[in-house]
Amino acid sequence: MKILIVGAGPTGLTAAVELARRGVMPRIIDKRSGPSNLSRAVGIQQRTMDILTPSGAAEEIRKEAVCFDGVAFHSGPRRIAKLALNFDDKSRLYGLPQDRTEHFLARAFARYGGKIEYDTPFEGLTQDETCARVQMGGTESPFDQVIGADGAHSAVRAALGLEFPGFDLPGQWSIADVESPDWRDPQCFQGFLLPHGDICIVAPLEAARFRVIASRPDALAALPVPMNVTNIRRSGAFTISVRQVTDYAVGRVCLAGDAAHCHSPAGGRGMNLGIADAADLAGRLVDGGLAGYHAARHAEGAHVLAFSETVRKAVQSKSPLRRMVMPWVMKLVAAVPPFQRAAVHYFVSG
Question: Is the pLDDT of residue 264 over 90?
Answer without folding.
Answer: no
